[in-house]
Amino acid sequence: MARVAHVSEDLRTRFEDVRSRIATRARQCGRAPEAITLVAVSKTHPVEILKKAIAAGVTDFGENRIQEADAKIIELGRAATRWHLIGHLQSNKAHRAVKLFDIIHSLDSISLAHRLDRFCEEEGRDELPVLVQVDLADEATKSGVPEAELVKLVRAVKHCSRLRLQGLMTVPPFLADTEQVRPFFRRLRELRDELQSKGSFSEMQGELSMGMSHDFEVAIEEGATMLRIGTAIFGERAAGV
Ligand SMILES: *Cc1c(COP(=O)(O)O)cnc(C)c1O
């Protein structure tokens, strides 16, 4: 018991700390803190911890694996919070994702877009907000659409009647020096701006999902509207996850 109480106090303190850092940096660069959504990345953490997080004021959770998220979402309920899928989505899990998540950050292929759209229709779901994940580092192992194929994918999403394209997402390479991450954030913003100025993407609200525990302040400076933060809120995960 004592341990759980301790954990929840730490969590609350860290969450408040992250929130105040977000607000401070946003104001420093003339942005409204309310325009930035904090997605608490709860992967690997058990439902008990998520409950503490909700009690501490978390309204958005990010999960990266369908199987793990499935159990948690069933236990906590779809309506308990907003659920964000932030990890790579395999096509055979697309149906489940449509049932479980409020928004998908990791759309990265035309075939996946078509599948999601079809499952929305089957499930009677009118709208599924999506972000297109862009692989800016050209890392073959990373998920995300290469920059050169972005426009084609965006066009395809537009033709999916149930998908609502809300913006772009990226996971830059992990670099301890956050100044080296800045160009990736900046590039994502430029791509967003280009898509918006083409005008044909009126549905896109221009969200930028970028920035994690160690680099979110730089991401805010470069225009992030959704931060995906795990460690800084929940503490370290088990190694290798
Ligand atoms: C795990 C994860 C995060 C959060 O990482 P932290 O460094 O713990 O903040 C953000 N985005 C994605 C896609 C992740 O998988």
Report on the structure:
By secondary structure, the chain is an alpha/beta fold. The protein is 43% helix and 17% strand. The protein is built from 9 helices and 9 strands. Strands 1, 2, 3, 4, 5, 6, 7, 8 and 9 form a 9-stranded parallel beta sheet that branches. Strand 7, helix 7 and strand 8 form a beta-alpha-beta unit. Helix 1 packs across helix 2 and helix 4 crosses helix 5. The longest helix is centred in the first third of the chain and has 27 residues. It is globular. The model has no long low-confidence stretch (mean pLDDT 93). The site of pyridoxal-5'-phosphate (PLP) has 13 residues, from strand 9 and helix 9.
List unreliable stretches of 5+ residues: none
Shape estimate? globular
Number of helical stretches of at least 4 residues: 9
Share of helical residues: 40-55%
Strand count, sense and closure of the main sheet? 9 strands, parallel
Mean pLDDT over the full residue set: 93
- Intertermini distance: 27 Å
Question: Layout of helices and strands, plus pairs?
Answer:
Blueprint: H1 2-28, E1 37-41, H2 47-56, E2 60-63, H3 66-76, E3 82-85, H4 94-100, E4 103-107, H5 110-123, E5 128-135, E6 145-146, H6 150-158, E7 163-169, H7 182-197, E8 207-209, H8 216-221, E9 226-229, H9 231-234
Helix pairs in contact: 1-2, 4-5
Concise account of the structure shown:
With 241 residues, the protein is an alpha/beta fold.
Main features:
9 strands; alpha/beta; 241 residues
